[in-house]
Design goal:
This protein is α/β, with parallel strands linked by helices. Helices cover about 45% and strands about 10% of the residues. The chain is globular, with a radius of gyration of 18 Å.
């Protein structure tokens, strides 16, 4: 599906994709939500808001790309966002399991056992992302100068500042393939969006 030239991303439904059409030299950028569903040990926990396809389709697609020899990239900004998402998820799970609906987030952070569990989870995920794929995943960074580009183009897309900075920087490196479940990516011109998002496809 294509939203049209200069009208947003070119969309590929990974549920229906002919994988033989993907060339080995194609590079793919992994969005934060895909990192969560692929590497977070509690991604399937029923206490978290998600759809079943997310924890099945995206890890499977990433695994097939790695088997195909494709290079994958993510950024330090994605990893920073990932740490925040995991902490929030652990907080939701803790409240649900312990019947602590009134527990505030700041108070939760004072729980030393939970804090240690969070540290262990983050350490494990970062190690897996950095080291477990024989160099097929590269973590890159960018400068603050891209923030001005976000301000200048804020009316031309629906992305938040994290996504815009990442996409704009990677596009500048010649990377145009993105794996995400975020429908805001559909509003960005000049990229290929590989997604299983049910309202997009």
């Amino acid at each position: 599906m294509n939203n049209g030239e200069n009208m947003g991303a070119k969309i590929f439904d990974i549920k229906k994709l002919d994988f033989t059409s993907i060339k080995r030299e194609e590079v793919f950028a992994i969005d934060t939500n895909v990192l969560v569903w692929t590497h977070y040990s509690e991604a399937s926990n029923p206490c978290l808001n998600k759809h079943p396809y997310q924890v099945i389709r995206y890890p499977d697609f990433v695994a097939r790309l790695l088997e195909n020899g494709n290079k994958l990239v993510t950024t330090l900004l994605n990893l920073t966002e990932l740490c925040g998402v995991i902490e929030r998820n652990r907080y939701r799970i803790y409240k649900a399991v312990n019947g602590s609906d009134s527990l505030g987030f700041k108070s939760y952070r004072n729980n030393s056992a939970e804090r240690e569990g969070y540290r262990h989870e983050i350490e494990h995920m970062l190690m897996e992302i950095r080291e477990s794929y024989d160099g097929q995943i590269e973590i890159i960074n960018f400068t603050e100068a891209h923030l001005n580009m976000f301000v200048n183009n804020i009316c031309k897309n629906k992305c938040d500042v994290f996504d815009y900075l990442i996409i704009d920087y990677l596009k500048g490196m010649g990377i145009h393939n993105y794996i995400s479940d975020d429908k805001d990516f559909t509003t960005v011109d000049g990229i290929n969006l590989y997604t299983a998002y049910e309202e997009v496809n």
